[in-house]
Amino acid sequence: MSPVSDEINFDGLVGPTHNYAGLSEGNLASARHKDAIARPRDAALQGLAKMRRLAGLGLRQGVLAPMERPNIGWLRTLGFAGADAAVWEAAMRADPRLARNALAASSMWAANAATVSPSADAIDGRLHFSVANLVTMAHRAQEPAHTQRLLRRIFFDPSRFAVHEALPAQAVFADEGAANHMRLAAAPGAPGVEVFVYGRGGFERESGQFPARQTREACEAIARRHGLRQGATLFWLQGVEAIDAGAFHNDVVAVAHGDTLFCHEQAFADLAGAREALARAADGLFAPRWAIIPRSAVGLSDAIKTYLFNSQLVTLPGADRKTLIAPAETQESPLVWDALQALIADGGPIGGVEIVDVRESMRNGGGPACLRLRVEATPEEQAAMRGGFLWTEVLGAALEVWVRAHYRETLAPEDLADPHLLTEARAAMDALTRILPLGEDFYSFQR
Ligand code: SUG
Known about the structure:
three-stranded mixed sheet; 15 helices; L-arginine/glycine Amidinotransferase, Chain A; binds N~2~-(3-carboxypropanoyl)-L-arginine; alpha/beta; 17% strand
């Protein structure tokens, strides 16, 4: 089977410190599972099984390395001193909540790593990445430096790729990457329409119950940096009811692929306006197709509980209609499952569903689509990427052995102060640099 699109899904590997710390206000799953016992090994194996599954379906699959955690450097900037193990112990003793912000394995949610614009959309003909600053959450704001290093390692040729640094780390420019960005186009390599979705104006106060993590100013700055065509770039406001119901990112209620946008009726503040604007922007390029689940069929609460819209929307080789890669939780809700079957039966753009089990990530509010960063790269751009980050059975097998050798089966809140956690995590990261071509000094403890 040969892949039919230029799309590569880079999934974030789940790091060895995966745990449930209840760090993300407005992310209901994260709050619900605070202090639950996590299973890092299962989490990482579930992630690898998803990658293998998608590769097996004929899709291009890539792998992104996890961050170094606990983040001792960050704790040092906050005043903890001494040897590395002493820093970790002191932080856990003084302020466990703060320390757990230095431990999160949140880089697994690669959809938040960066916003990506394919070269067909950019006036300079390069493939653009803007690393997300993730300023809203203290644990996630530690990711940009890692992401930049990683993306520049893979997309190293500046004549083809532009990896922009994160926007200023300021609430006005709050940015959570591709989770709040959608792209529609007729076919691989064709110019498309890019849609940025924001939750608030950067200079405005929060209007809802939960933080809006993406601002209009951030979206506009990214569009400018990427050199996107004005008429083909849209900025839509998220529905405040959606954010308040737990859609802390747009990709919790909407996903686009090719000419199709699949969303909940309440995803955007002005759905009718969005439909009109998309039709106008796509005029002459393609005819946009919408698959909308009305609130009368599935309410926001069930949509968010099951993460129906955090499915990956893909085109399988040889298929006329698109396929959803949906989390297992959708199958367990008769209401949501029936709505999905009805959608498929109505003959619209979505013709099938494949179920994946990513339960460990789901408990922290991360579904199948959160776990991947989509990169649309032409064959020439793919050839210019550093090799070794794309899925092969050999790489997958090596990663599986690595996980089994280095990951704990369980991680409970009372395990976190254990100084061995630091040495184990570092041994894992160090070994990973011999599996993925990260270089020998990728992680700061190696330098
Ligand atoms: O940022 N959860 C992540 C989930 C991100 C999901 N990504 C997308 N929707 N694209 C977040 O809220 C929870 C960590 C904890 O509580 O331990 C967390 O960070």
